[in-house]
Design a protein that fits this description.
Elements (H helix, E strand, L loop, with lengths): L7 H8 L33 H16 L3 H13 L4 H10 L2 H7 L6 H9 L3 E3 L2 E2 L12 E4 L3 H12 L10 E4 L4 E4 L14 H8 L2
Antiparallel strand pairs: 1-2, 1-3, 3-5, 4-5
């Protein structure tokens, strides 16, 4: 996952949608009505077909916090899978460990979930995992290290304000500070405003 060095609100303004990079903050702000960031943001040029396709790919990358090379690998993986390539791509991205920790509600943002994993607070099936892109599968159990610091971090994450709901393919266990991957996610359970067909068309050129 890429480190976000730019202003997070500016990224949401650029994409015209709240990407929840600041957790529950700015929930009521209409980013679609905001001008893009920068001194020339109010000079809106006419969008070309290429620009529309590129913008959708960039939005997806920023939503999940992946780099270009990583994104291309995910696209190739989705292309090799049976079924709709665009839907496969979103399912693969949703199955990243950092996204699962975020969706379970233990982190207010994906960036925070990534940090928790890198610092070895998160465990998968009882083993510590420090790779944010670790692909989870149905039946895997996500938990936190028994260390006091890890437990406090998980509890703080549950108390933090959030905006995204927990999908039905995940089940959280509040008492044990963990969760279970019940099933493989489907496109209907991916609550992000992405037109994946535009991404497929762009990456297939």
């Amino acid at each position: 996952m890429a480190r976000i060095r730019n202003r997070k609100v500016a990224i949401s303004r650029r994409e015209g949608v709240n990407m929840h990079l600041k957790g529950g903050r700015y929930e009521n702000m209409d980013f679609g009505g905001e001008k893009p960031p920068g001194v020339h943001g109010d000079r809106r040029s006419r969008a070309t077909d290429y620009g529309i396709h590129l913008r959708e790919k960039q939005k997806c990358k920023r939503w999940y916090g992946v780099l270009e090379r990583q994104f291309r690998r995910y696209f190739d993986q989705a292309l090799a899978m049976p079924g709709n390539t665009g839907q496969n791509l979103l399912v693969v991205l949703e199955s990243r460990l950092d996204n699962v920790v975020y969706r379970l509600g233990f982190a207010p943002t994906r960036n925070m979930a990534r940090q928790m994993i890198v610092h070895r607070h998160v465990m998968v099936d009882g083993k510590r995992v420090s790779v944010p892109s670790w692909p989870v599968k149905a039946g895997m159990k996500i938990s936190f290290s028994p260390r006091e610091g890890s437990q406090k971090l998980a509890k703080a994450g549950l108390d933090s304000p959030k905006t995204d709901f927990m999908p039905s393919w995940l089940m959280r266990e509040d008492n044990q500070l963990g969760g279970v991957v019940v099933a493989r996610p489907t496109r209907e359970e991916v609550p992000i405003a992405i037109k994946e067909q535009l991404i497929v068309e762009f990456c297939s050129k």
